[in-house]
UniProtKB/TrEMBL annotation:
PANTHER family reported for this sequence: DELTA(3,5)-DELTA(2,4)-DIENOYL-COA ISOMERASE, MITOCHONDRIAL (PTHR43149:SF1), ENOYL-COA HYDRATASE (PTHR43149)
Record's keyword annotation contains Lipid metabolism: yes
SUPFAM superfamilies: ClpP/crotonase
Family label: Belongs to the enoyl-CoA hydratase/isomerase family.
UniProt-listed InterPro entries: ClpP/crotonase-like_dom_sf (IPR029045), Ech1-like (IPR045002), Enoyl-CoA_hydra/iso (IPR001753), Enoyl-CoA_hydra_C (IPR014748)
Protein keywords: Fatty acid metabolism, Isomerase, Lipid metabolism
NCBIfam families named among the record's database cross-references: PRK06142.1
Protein name per its UniProtKB record: Crotonase/enoyl-CoA hydratase family protein
Keyword Isomerase: yes
Xref: Gene3D superfamilies: 2-enoyl-CoA Hydratase, Chain A, domain 1, Lyase 2-enoyl-coa Hydratase, Chain A, domain 2
Pathway: Lipid metabolism; fatty acid beta-oxidation
């Protein structure tokens, strides 16, 4: 797959592995990172040969969050007028938000594999993923409060639907570290692996298992689950009825049924 400056992207069969590739900077998120993140996931969304995505970080850490150099760069662009500064900052924040939203809007399931630090902006990033897994050495932290600001890239908007309100408030108000065992207990991660290599192997295995299912069924399931986050049960039932009125006519339904009856693996077209 195409080369990038801050990511290494490769495709292993129907699974794309997107790896943040700035280990010398603890995978801190610089300006190029944000441009490439949106581009990569927009491209993966449009690639029918990709059925699942694993997002990881190279080296000892998933990501230490926003690169201080980027924050300094943004600060250097501010001038004397508060109104124009506000306009500039809002534009910058919305641009960063859109890159993370591209992860959430990718029609393929995105599985985060976290080892070491997952701090600040990295929490925003994993909150936009479908599932999260971690190694035993993982440390999660919403650090923005220690920088004198509220997290503004999705953590406070998405995590309330992943962990309890009280736990999220504690993490966001205190900025404390959450270790792997606690992250599992509160539902932030699905599973804890003993080592980082075991983590990546395990998550790639889950992704490969998903990729063996009907891509239309998986995409439809993701769309319904995401839709239900902001809609009533009645709205969701109506939406899935309309969706399946079309999708139940897919050849994938017959293929899946035949595979079940024959107890043989199903093979679906992209």
């Amino acid at each position: 797959m195409s080369a990038h400056t801050t990511f290494h992207v490769e495709q292993q069969g129907p699974v794309a592995h997107v790896q943040i590739n700035r280990p010398h900077k603890r995978n801190a998120m610089n300006a190029v990172f944000w441009l490439e993140l949106g581009e990569i996931f927009t491209s993966l969304d449009a690639d029918d040969s990709v059925r699942a995505v694993v997002l990881s970080g190279a080296g000892a850490h998933f990501s230490s969050g926003m690169d201080i150099a980027l924050l300094s760069q943004i600060a250097s662009e501010l001038g004397p007028d508060a109104g124009r500064n506000a306009r500039l900052l809002r534009r910058k924040i919305l641009g960063l938000q859109s890159a993370i939203t591209a992860v959430e809007q990718c029609s393929k399931p995105v599985l985060a594999a976290v080892q070491g630090y997952c701090i600040g902006g990295a929490m925003d990033l994993i909150a936009a993923c479908d599932m999260r897994y971690c190694a035993a050495d993982a440390r999660f932290s919403i650090k923005e409060v220690d920088m004198g600001m509220a997290a503004d890239l999705g953590t406070l908007q998405r995590l309330p639907r992943i962990i309890s309100d009280g736990m999220l408030r504690e993490l966001a108000y205190t900025g404390r570290d959450m270790q792997a065992d606690e992250a599992l207990r509160v539902g932030l991660v699905n599973q804890v692996f003993a080592t980082a290599p075991g983590l990546l192997e395990g998550v790639l295995g889950v992704a490969a298992h998903i990729a063996g299912k009907s891509p239309l069924a998986v995409t439809g399931t993701k769309r319904m689950l995401t839709y239900m986050r902001d809609h009533s049960v009645a709205d969701g039932l109506d939406y899935v009825a309309t969706w399946n009125a079309a999708m139940l006519q897919s050849a994938d339904v017959n293929i899946a049924m035949a595979a079940t009856l024959s107890q043989q693996p199903a093979r679906f077209d992209d």
